[in-house]
Amino acid sequence: MIVLPSKRPKYICEFCFRNFTESLNYKYGNCFTFNSGREMEIWQSSKSGPLYGLTLDLNIEQSDYIEALTQNAGVRVLVTSANKIGFPEDSGFSIAPGYSTSVGLKFLKISRLKSPYKSNCTDGFHTIYSANGGKAQTRYSVKACQNGCIQTQIASTCNCSAAAYPNPWNNTICPSDDKCVDKVLGDYRDEEFTCDCPQSCVAFDYGVTISQSKWPSARYQATSLTNLKNKGAGFKNADADFQAENLARLEIFLEELNYEDITESPSYSIPTLFGDVGGLAGFYVGVSMCSCAEFFELFIDLLIICMYRVCGSSSRDHIGHKGRTIENFAVGNGICNGSFSANTKRGVSGSNVSIGDMFTAQHPLPPPDYN
């Protein structure tokens, strides 16, 4: 969007007004939009660089400025996507006369998530800027929604509509010094009332790279003046001062044919949650089974050790008779019921002697007492 603070700017270019849509801005006056897409086919560029962009020589006509109101001289420029209402008073950049401003563009696409995520974006809805109530005519934007909310509040509170915003209800225009309007704007600034204007789920924008140089150069100034005087009778008296005070050159082009895509994604989604829960459950269940098996094995080992100790302690008792002691025996053929190999202190050994035979041999029964 090219906003000119003049009544009828003179475009020194071959397009004239054929590809420009004219509108009115409450702060900058006449606004001329190139390639708006609302009343004509959208032009597309298949090449990058200044040679394949848009070049405008602008006459800002400082002689028509109002002394008490106009503080700055130049042109306000705003680059937006097609079918989108621009607000140069809130965004954009200014170019000064006497300079050539080069603006390189890079296309940007932003995708956001809907509720329940924090962005809580919207696919767009009607605003007061929608032409004939058709959402397809103008693309939704947060600023358009906010301005519509403020105008609605003014209309309901003050019974009139502010001149700075569209008036779809054909209400009476509020006076410029209306205290009611000032109060509504102050309440909005102080957040006494809020507007529900979420971000767009899919937004298109342009990143800009701006550079400036003195124009025209000292060596080219004579040639530039000759070309300027040949444009029409209005430039017959143009001189170097006229050029420095009124003429500005603007070049807008694509830096690259690729674009940047910024996509918002959940940091922790539902499938990821279920996957992590399943993984942890599998891990803990696996650890529990291994632990149970190890505890069971430990219990069996302890049981066997205890049984060995109990049986061994009952069989290791020293048995003595006339200086003979049976020791160092081994258990076999069952627990506590096997045969023994016994060594006496005198080196007499008996092998594979059953318990009964052993005690019969070492401890013969005394003869019966008949007395």
Short summary of the structure?
By secondary structure, the protein is of the alpha+beta class.
Q: Choose one word for the global shape.
A: elongated
- What is the radius of gyration computed over CA atoms, rounded to a whole number of angstroms? 49 Å
**Percentage of residues in helical conformation:** 25-40%
Strand content: 15-25%
Low-confidence stretches: 1-15, 132-136, 318-365
Distance between the termini: 142 Å
SSE string = EEEEEEEEHHEHHEEHEEEEH
Please describe the biggest sheet, giving its number of strands, its sense, and whether it closes into a barrel: 6 strands, mixed
Structural class designation: alpha+beta
Mean pLDDT value: 78
Tell me what you see in this structure.
With 371 residues, the chain is of the alpha+beta class. The chain has six helices and 15 strands. The strands form four sheets. Strands 2, 5, 8, 9, 10 and 11 form a six-stranded mixed sheet that branches. The chain has a five-stranded antiparallel sheet with strand order 3-4-1-6-7, with no helix packed on it. A two-stranded antiparallel ribbon has the order 12-13. A hairpin with a 5-residue loop joins strand 14 and strand 15 (349-353). The radius of gyration is 49 Å and the shape is elongated.
Task: List strands and helices in order, with pairings.
Blueprint: E1 2-3, E2 10-11, E3 20-25, E4 29-34, E5 54-59, E6 75-77, E7 93-95, E8 99-111, H1 142-158, H2 179-189, E9 202-214, H3 221-229, H4 240-246, E10 247-254, E11 260-263, H5 270-315, E12 319-321, E13 324-326, E14 340-343, E15 349-353, H6 355-362
Parallel strand pairs: 8-10, 8-11
Antiparallel strand pairs: 1-4, 1-6, 2-5, 3-4, 5-10, 6-7, 8-9, 12-13, 14-15
